[in-house]
Amino acid sequence: MMPRTCPIVLVQTNNGPHPEVFLPPAEGPKRSRNRLIVKDLGYAASVGDRTAAAKEPSASRDDRDGREGREGRDDRVGRPGREGRDGSDAGWGPRRAPKSRRRLSVDERRDELIAAALELFSSRSPETISIDDVAAAAGASRALVYHYFGGKHELYVAALKSAATQLSNLLEPPAEGRPLEKLALSLHRYFDFVEDHAAGFVALLRGGPANRSGEIGEIVDEIRQLLLTRILHEMGVTEPGPVLRLTMRSWLASVETAGLDWLERRDLPRDELERLLVDQQVVLLRVAGRYDEQVASLFDRLMAEELA
What confidence tens digit (pLDDT) does each residue in 124-181 have? Predict the structure, then answer.
């Protein structure tokens, strides 16, 4: 650092000019770097700077909020730019009162548990589902599920009964159309149900005898009897003879088998499979008519209505 030089000037006195050293006014104290930081923070960073910081007005909180808040800040905690999990700011705004859940009646709560169980049984094998899984899916406690159903078997039976009711509603006979057109529509609705409840359908029909005994077996038989009754009703038959009954039950067994095979392989378009099954019933009725006059008359009437 170069030494500082002081100029010499002549000062007029009573004794004449007199040389004196001229001292320039002293420079003001240098502002420390800490004070620059202090100004933004609003407090002195060191003892030596406290007096200076106190004399200088610091930026107000509103000014700082104006700078920081341009990019978005949290009204609760002052964190800029944070967002909710879904990309919105819903999780970071002012607290909102939680939505109150409507109190359900006993029947409504039971139906809610059954719906959650049916959804699980439709997508997974029943053996892989626990009461805890159902409780979690329904947003309920394990104790509540046991309170309503007693155990997994009772819950499974209730879910199957609910599914049977749904299928019964789906297979409600169409009001208009020719007999084979109505049959094709019923088959289409049946396969809608099969596809929507694929895992449960496979587990139910492919299970061992123990899985189809008792209440579960009764439910399966009720579904089959429902299908048979609906089809015979569309044919205008109230009391089928032995040949017609055997023929129709054999056809229903082939429908179940075709459904299982299609779910496993899916190597045939579904609409083509449905048309194939309708044609199979026509052929079965034609052959069965050779052994029974009732079936022969039924076949002739159905064909006349189709060609009308």
Answer: 888 889 999 999 999 999 999 999 999 998 998 898 888 888 888 888 877 788 888 9
Cβ–Cβ under 8 Å, residues 298 and 235: yes
- Which fold, 105-162? Tetracycline Repressor; domain 2 (1.10.357)
**Which of 117, 112, 205, 211 has the alpha carbon at shortest distance from 155?**
117
Q: Tokens 């899985």 appear where? A: 211
Alpha carbon 88 to chain centroid, angstroms: 19
Q: CB-based contacts of 155: which residues, under 8 Å, 6+ apart? A: 113, 114, 117, 131, 134, 145, 149
Nearest to 144 by CA among 109, 178, 103, 170: 109
pTM for the full predicted model: 0.60
Superfamily of domain 171-307: Tetracycline Repressor, domain 2 (1.10.357.10)
3-state secondary structure 67-100: HHHHHCECCCCCCECCCCCCCCCCCCCCCCCCCC
* CB environment 63-72: b (16+ within 10 A), e (fewer): eeeeeeeeee
In terms of Cβ atoms closer than 10 Å to its own Cβ (0-12, 13-18, 19+), residue 292 is middle
List every span in the chain annotated with CATH 1.10.357.10.
105-162, 171-307
In the three-class reduction of DSSP (H, G, I as helix; E, B as strand; rest coil), residue 10 is classed as strand
